[in-house]
Amino acid sequence: MRLMMFVCKTSRPDFGSHRIEECGFQVLEHESTVAFPEKIDETDLADVEAYKVETEKLLKDNLEAKHVVCYDFRLRENKDFSRNMIDLGNPLLIEGPAYGAHNDESFLFVFSIPVFDDKALNLERQYLKPGYRFQIVNTWRILNPVAQDNPLALCDFRTVIPEDLIEADRVSPGRAGEVYYIKDNKSQRWCWLEGQTPNEPFVFVMYDTKPGNQARYRPHITFQNSRAPDEAPPRKSVETRSIVTS
Question: SS3 letters for 156-208?
């Protein structure tokens, strides 16, 4: 992936015009009530649950949803890890930034997400009928005062063609899924929010059951920011994935 050749614009002056229905992502103005510790490995399960509940309300209010289930929470930090094994089911697991342009779910395997088989989703079953729409929606929030080291870049859905998508297996304990990796294409328009703060979370779509020309996925990537000062602290961020019903 030609990161240095991205049409990777700061776009802060016009980010307000980006809408999830059109380009696949938008920036919200939102101050979290969850105070994550400076050492994010000291985060506890109460923080995780509080943030998931807060995320559900955030998405319900901003996407005019009937029901939201936040099923995944992930902390990331840009540092070297020394460990022989990890538990992917541990909500307190800290991972490094995700490199490689990708979309978290493919259209074929999206319903292999374990939460779709979870009894806790019984409330959702009332919406499994014609006329309701399901989306998989991510949120991403920087935990540093300002995003400098290894920020997140997002690709405008309208500049991606189906031939840019490469299906790839994602196999983990309890689930065999599939992601899209993204071929390089000069027509793609990649954006990032220079100077992004914790009160400016990204919201972006991974999947949408609604047919039509609206954004149904949205590639993203972590990239090495050549504008970051040498003293920039390692990136810390939190992300969620939710099923949004409307």
Answer: CHHHCCHHHEEEEEEEECCEEEEEEEECCCCCCCEECCCCCCCCCCEEEEEEE
List CB contacts of 126: < 8 A, sequence separation 6 or more.
Answer: none
* Per-residue pLDDT tens digits for 164-190: 999 988 877 777 788 899 998 989 988
From 55-59, 104-108, 199-203, the region with the lowest mean pLDDT: 104-108
* Helix, strand, coil shares, percent, the chain, to 5: 20, 30, 50
Terminal Cα distance for the chain, rounded: 35
Give tens-digit pLDDT for 208-228. Answer: 988 888 999 989 999 999 889
Count CB neighbours of 165 within 10 A.
19
CB atoms within 10 A of CB 164: 18
Residues 241 and 70: beta-carbon distance below 8 Å: yes
Query: Tokens 């991205």 map to which residue?
Result: 6
Task: Tell me which amino acid residue 123 is.
Answer: L
Alpha-carbon distance of 157 to 206, in angstroms, equals 11
pTM of the model: 0.89
Q: For residue 189, what are the β-bridge partners?
A: none
How many residues would you count in the chain?
Answer: 246
Read off the pLDDT of residues 70-109 as tens digits, 9 standing for 90 and up.
989 999 999 988 888 888 888 899 999 998 899 988 887 6
Residue with tokens 């809408």: 19
